[in-house]
Amino acid sequence: MDAYRIRSEPFYQSAGDEIALFQAAYAKRLPLLLKGPTGCGKTRFVEHMAWRLGKPLVTVACHDELSAADLVGRWLLDAEGTRWQDGPLALAARHGALCYLDELVEARADTTVVIHPLADTRRMLPLTACNELLAAHPDFALVVSYNPGPLARELKASTRQRFCALEFHYPAPEVEAAIVARESGLALDDAAAIVAFGVRTRRLQGHGLDDGASTRMLVHAAVLASQGVAPRRACRMAVVDALSDEPGVHEALRAALDASY
Length: 261
Ligand code: ADP
Fold this sequence. Notes:
Blueprint: H1 18-27, E1 32-35, H2 42-53, E2 57-61, H3 68-72, E3 73-78, E4 81-86, H4 88-95, E5 98-102, H5 109-115, E6 124-127, E7 132-135, E8 141-146, H6 157-160, E9 164-167, H7 173-184, H8 188-202, H9 215-226, H10 231-243, H11 247-260
Helix pairs in contact: 7-8, 7-9, 8-9, 8-11, 9-10, 10-11
């Protein structure tokens, strides 16, 4: 599991009591659902917590082709014959890692069936293909993320009910400016101007946009600016042109940019 250990502290700017709440949930191995828009710091938070707890972290970015077998494992055929290879979920459960299933709702429906017995008091993972009922290691814990929204797929009630939820939002502007400055190396004032633009784009949410600029996008703009790109151009490249191709939305984003620079 050495490859899954996080050696140095991932920078995470806390916004409230989420570190203490994660620790309380982990102490009793309660599965956690992190809810919030994309690019608001959920993954960074899990990396930070894995580092704090000194546990390896196995992350899976879920997508619509991801199946139960991809998570659990499969038989492989090589020169020596067939051998079983644990998938990421089995690996984490067997060796006591945190398993982070990013955007679980994107995965195929059969994946939720396999996580259910792991996400309740049974803490078991049936490896049906190799006839093993894997009891999770005492250090194992499950964390999943979910980006709710009008266009988002719903998580099944039977899945939701197994998790405690922590809600994430984009940080307050001063905090977000500090994050963007720290992540990009840009001066705080310049980072604050980029964040002010980002906040304007978020007001367009619901008017053709699911979410406005994420913290991730604002970090990208700041990184470009730190490379000498003019801030207005950097915001155009990292946010306006990246967010939408829909002419009305694009126009509104450009107006937000005009109002900012
Ligand atoms: P999510 O998992 O919610 O989609 P990430 O955790 O990948 O988002 O965040 C995207 C980027 O935004 C991170 O790589 C980091 O640069 C920055 N970021 C967002 N929130 C924070 C935070 N609270 N502390 C530190 N960096 C953050």
